[in-house]
Amino acid sequence: MKNSSLERAARLYRVLGDSSVLASFLSHAEQLDTTLRVLRGQIQPPEILQAIDDLAASQLRIRRAVNPAEGPSPARRSRIFNID
User: Fold this and answer.
1) Domain span at residue 24?
2) Is the pTM of this model over 0.90?
3) Number of structural domains the chain divides into
4) Which of 5, 31, 39, 84 has minimal CB crowding within 10 Å?
5) 42-73 pLDDT tens trace
């Protein structure tokens, strides 16, 4: 659900270029980052951990497509979510 909001905000920003839309996008991205970190710390089954990591990777691609200067570096994100 949050990923859909993130994608919507990303599309709006790319079309409108409005800084308030970018702020909304970044806010959604931070909320999703926080949720994923909390889930990753609470979940044990490997298949669910993989799904969380896949979602984190998608979120990072969306975030960088909108604003490449934003977001943790790949190395830092990999340590947090075990992604490449």
Assistant:
1) 2-81
2) no
3) 1
4) 84
5) 988 999 999 999 998 988 888 887 776 765 55
